[in-house]
UniProtKB/TrEMBL annotation:
<dbReference type="GO" id="GO:0046872">
    <property type="term" value="F:metal ion binding"/>
</dbReference>
<comment type="similarity">
    <text>Belongs to the FAH family.</text>
</comment>
<protein>
    <recommendedName>
        <fullName>Oxaloacetate tautomerase FAHD1, mitochondrial</fullName>
        <ecNumber>3.7.1.5</ecNumber>
        <ecNumber>4.1.1.112</ecNumber>
        <ecNumber>5.3.2.2</ecNumber>
    </recommendedName>
</protein>
<dbReference type="Pfam" id="PF01557">
    <property type="entry name" value="FAA_hydrolase"/>
</dbReference>
<feature type="domain" description="Fumarylacetoacetase-like C-terminal">
    <location>
        <begin position="24"/>
        <end position="223"/>
    </location>
</feature>
<dbReference type="InterPro" id="IPR036663">
    <property type="entry name" value="Fumarylacetoacetase_C_sf"/>
</dbReference>
<keyword id="KW-0479">Metal-binding</keyword>
<dbReference type="GO" id="GO:0050163">
    <property type="term" value="F:oxaloacetate tautomerase activity"/>
</dbReference>
<dbReference type="GO" id="GO:0018773">
    <property type="term" value="F:acetylpyruvate hydrolase activity"/>
</dbReference>
<dbReference type="GO" id="GO:0047621">
    <property type="term" value="F:acylpyruvate hydrolase activity"/>
</dbReference>
<dbReference type="GO" id="GO:0005739">
    <property type="term" value="C:mitochondrion"/>
</dbReference>
<dbReference type="GO" id="GO:0019752">
    <property type="term" value="P:carboxylic acid metabolic process"/>
</dbReference>
<dbReference type="GO" id="GO:0008948">
    <property type="term" value="F:oxaloacetate decarboxylase activity"/>
</dbReference>
<dbReference type="InterPro" id="IPR011234">
    <property type="entry name" value="Fumarylacetoacetase-like_C"/>
</dbReference>
Length: 228
């Protein structure tokens, strides 16, 4: 069942179409030493986890929407696609549950997050909005030998803004999968966003974001304004 799902995933062009089973989006926040350093915040003692609605997915060819009166940041991330159901798994076994990968942007509305923080309220509207999760084509598991040693980069209008290896992550891919699975069952097709390295920043209407992962995939998205 799981292996046929994974081969279906691999044969399809884009992540948002792969999965008939899971495909919830689970994100880890502040998971890079470099970003924690930039933001002058301590390393989290445990992974900080959030959810994004599946209505956030977009594929290459679609456009990132930014509310006119709000600020939305780009965050380039390694996306891990779950290959088989996992519940309360150990770190030692966690990599066995990976079905593949993708390159992802965790678009983040920092105006909404700032408002939420002021009220000690949840971050949902900062993480979940239409177009908040641009994704690349599916990358087969075999193409990435070690998810904790993957190079990510992002250019904004041709200028490099983010460039880092996933080796800078605070919690490894195994630790994140195991940790999340203690609380919620991860299902085939679910996407785990592993966090963003330093250099995150705002996008503006007509900006172009280009990003890449090792020499495996690049993707480009443009930005347009929408009414707030
Ligand atoms: O504190 C904020 O305003 C936002 C934090 C994030 O978006 C954290 C991440 O998603 C990340 O580190 O990847
Ligand atoms: Mg993020």
């Amino acid at each position: 069942m799981a292996s046929s799902l994974v081969s279906k995933m691999a044969s399809r062009a884009h992540l948002s179409n792969f999965s008939e089973v899971g495909r919830k989006i689970v994100g880890a926040a502040l998971n890079y030493k470099s970003l924690a350093h930039d933001l002058k915040v301590p390393h989290p003692a445990k992974p900080i986890i959030f959810l994004k609605a599946t209505s956030s997915y977009i594929n290459v060819g679609q456009v990132i929407e930014v509310p006119k009166a709000e600020t939305v940041n780009y965050e380039v991330e390694l996306g891990v696609v779950i290959g088989k159901k996992c519940k309360r798994i150990s770190e030692a076994n966690a990599l066995d549950y990976i079905g593949g990968y993708c390159l992802a942007l965790d678009m983040t509305n920092v105006t909404q997050i700032g408002n939420a923080k002021k009220m000690s309220a949840p971050w949902d509207l900062g993480k979940t909005f239409d177009t908040a999760c641009p994704v690349s084509k599916f990358i087969p598991k075999e193409s990435i030998k070690n998810p904790d040693d993957v190079k990510l980069w992002l250019k904004l209008n041709g200028n490099v803004k983010q460039e880092e290896s996933t080796s800078d992550m605070i919690f490894s891919t195994s630790q994140l999968i195991s940790y999340v699975s203690q609380f919620m069952t991860l299902e085939p097709g679910d996407l785990l966003l592993t966090g963003s390295p330093s250099g995150v920043g705002p996008v503006r209407p007509n900006d172009v974001l280009e990003c890449g992962l090792n020499d495996l995939v690049t993707m480009t998205f443009s930005v347009r304004a929408v009414e707030s």
